[in-house]
Design a protein that fits this description.
The protein has 369 residues and is of the alpha+beta class. The chain has 3 domains: 11-119, PAS domain (Beta-Lactamase, 2-Layer Sandwich), CATH 3.30.450; 124-198, Helix Hairpins; 206-364, Heat Shock Protein 90, CATH 3.30.565. It has 11 helices and 12 strands. It has helices at residues 11-19, 38-44, 48-51, 56-59, 64-76, 121-167, 171-198, 210-221, 247-265, 306-309, 327-337, and strands at residues 23-28, 33-36, 81-89, 92-104, 110-119, 206-208, 231-235, 243-245, 270-285, 288-299, 341-344, 352-359. The strands form 3 sheets. Strands 2-1-5-4-3 form a 5-stranded antiparallel sheet. Strands 7-9-10-12-11 form a 5-stranded mixed sheet. A hairpin with a 4-residue loop joins strand 1 (23-28) and strand 2. Helix 8 (210-221) crosses helix 9 and helix 9 (247-265) runs antiparallel to helix 11.
């Protein structure tokens, strides 16, 4: 006698499926989908009515390993199968872990199967964030020692150049001393940035309205010559809750990202800034589950080549002719200190997209409060 598989219209069954955050697919013995939960709809971008009755191989046509895993589970019967891979969902690739278990009758014959897909995007992002933080910490230790040793001779060089400037009358030589002073000041600024990476300032944590921070940054940058004819599009949800953070430090993050976007646009194109709650992931807290607020900054510029994307947040890596390569590294450090993540995402239509995820204040976790 087969163990009955509850129909998707069964109210308790629907409630159980809806409460599971991972994507769940129920298959019959003929490899066809009989039920999916809301998380599965969100992950695949396919609605339950369209998914129901579809062969598992057809539903995951662009990710054949998933369908093969489900079919093998139904063939083998008693074995539970696990695997990890990339799920092609619409226009994005999602790293997932997959588990498929058979539902058997009293004779041990498979009559159905349950396929569960767990989105690994946040886990992979946090792992990458941790690795970068470890590298920055190691660099910071070296930078802290070098900063003192470098700044002392820089001060001597600058003082000598200023004395020399007052002693020469040849305009060409005066110009040379000015170059020396200017370059020393640039190096001094670079050393200061290194010190900031090594010894980040103490965060002044408070409830922060992220839209006020973004509006202040955009208002400031619109006065800059680099803005030119750039078209700004903002999509802000005014009901979003506050986050807990350091207003000045977060402003530095978004100022850096907007500046980079404007440099990429070269005075023409489109800059988009949007906010929303990320419903895919939560933070486990004593008071319950916390949420992430997402800020997305996109531009229609040339984007970043695939070869460079893996090094974006590494210190001293820059695609700009005179860039120090510390701007995004500092952004990464600040966001990491806030318990968030920052990542680059290529745009299907071209251009660059940076996604910053910040934890919502524990006192204000529900949007609209």
């Amino acid at each position: 006698m087969a163990v009955p598989v509850p129909a998707p219209t069964d109210t308790p069954w629907v409630d159980v499926l809806a409460s599971i955050e991972d994507a769940v697919f129920v298959l019959d013995a003929g490899h066809r989908i009989t039920a999916v939960n809301p998380a599965a709809e969100q992950l695949t971008g396919v609605s339950a009515p369209h998914a129901t009755g579809t062969d598992v191989g057809e539903l995951f046509g662009e990710s054949p390993w998933v369908g093969e895993m489900a079919r093998e589970t139904l063939r083998a019967g008693a074995a539970r199968r696990r695997s990890e891979g990339v799920l092609v969902a619409g226009r994005r690739d999602v790293p997932v872990s997959a588990t498929c278990a058979p539902i058997v009758d009293t004779d041990g014959r498979p009559r159905a199967a349950v396929l569960v897909l767990h989105d690994l995007t946040l886990q992979r992002t946090l792992e990458a964030t941790t690795r970068r933080a470890d590298r920055l910490a190691a660099l910071g230790t070296v930078a802290q020692g070098l900063a003192h040793e470098i700044r002392n001779p820089l001060g001597g060089i600058k003082g000598a150049a200023q004395l020399l400037r007052g002693a020469v009358g040849d305009p060409a030589l005066v110009h040379c001393t000015d170059i020396i002073v200017r370059e020393v000041e640039r190096l001094d600024g670079l050393v200061e940035q290194l010190r900031e990476l090594a010894t980040p300032p103490h965060l002044r944590i408070e409830a922060v309205n992220i839209h006020r921070v973004l509006n202040d940054v955009l208002t400031l940058q619109r006065q800059a010559p680099e803005w030119g004819d750039v078209v700004l599009r903002t999509t802000f949800d005014p009901s979003l809750p506050a986050i807990r953070g350091d207003r000045a430090q977060l402003a530095q993050v978004f100022l850096n990202l907007v500046k980079n976007a404007l440099e990429a646009l070269g005075g023409t194109g489109q800059l988009s800034v949007s906010t929303r709650i990320d419903s895919r992931f939560h933070i486990r807290r004593r008071s319950g589950r916390g949420l992430f607020l997402i800020v997305i900054i996109e531009d229609s510029g040339p984007g970043i080549s695939e070869d460079h994307q893996a090094h974006l947040f590494s210190p001293f890596f820059s695609t700009k002719p005179r860039g120090t390569g510390l701007g995004l590294a500092v952004c990464h450090r600040i966001v990491n200190e806030h318990g968030g993540t920052i990542a680059y995402e290529p745009r299907a239509t071209g251009g660059a997209c940076f996604r910053v995820a910040l934890p919502v204040s524990e006192e204000d976790q529900v949007a609209g409060r």
